[in-house]
Amino acid sequence: MSSRQLLRITRPTKLELIRLRRRLAVARRIHRILRDRLTLIVQEFFIVVKKLYRMRRELNELLELAYRGYSQAYAFYGHRELSLLSNPLATGVEVYAATRNIVGVRAPLIELKSYPKEHSIVLPPETLTIYRVRARVLELLVSIAELEKELQVLGIEFERTKRRVNMLEHVLIPRILNTIKYLRSKFEEREREEKTRMKRIKTVLTRRRGVAIL
């Protein structure tokens, strides 16, 4: 058995064998916990992907509607007038950013905190639809930014957890098992040697007693 497949041990003793058995139980328990966590991360990842897909689809539809409305408003009011009408929309927007815990992963929490209310801005009737679409677009952009960052941190945590699972499954646990097997074979070899030695001693003593009787 190659030394690369074994753990380093100070001395091949029964005490070391007991320690290895305990270490094996702990490694298997951690391996099971990490595999369960890996499953939860994958489930959460696909949930976020589905949410992100729906939001991006809605965003594309709203942007198409908004571009159509802006083109009509631009043709009706002109560049200068439309710029003056849209200036109030550039102020009063606040975004709240924090973090939250998802399956043990620190993920971002981003929310649109405030947005200029419709009654606080004087807009022509032709631009109200654009304003409402723009408000929803901002909400979607904030949510999409949150979900994309969440996907990123979940992906990083998935790779990190997967490496730990693979290390336990393919490196540490096999090495512990091989070391336990190696120690058992050593102990069995010692027992055989001890039995052989005892038999020889017994034979020698028997012969000596026979000679003494004669």
TrEMBL record:
One GO term of the biological process aspect: proton motive force-driven plasma membrane ATP synthesis
Location in or out of the cell: Cell membrane
GO molecular function terms attached to this record: ATP binding; proton-transporting ATP synthase activity, rotational mechanism; proton-transporting ATPase activity, rotational mechanism
GO cellular component: plasma membrane
Membrane topology: Peripheral membrane protein
Lineage: superkingdom: Archaea
Quaternary structure and interacting proteins, as annotated: Has multiple subunits with at least A(3), B(3), C, D, E, F, H, I and proteolipid K(x).
Name of the featured protein: A-type ATP synthase subunit D
Gene source species: Ignisphaera aggregans
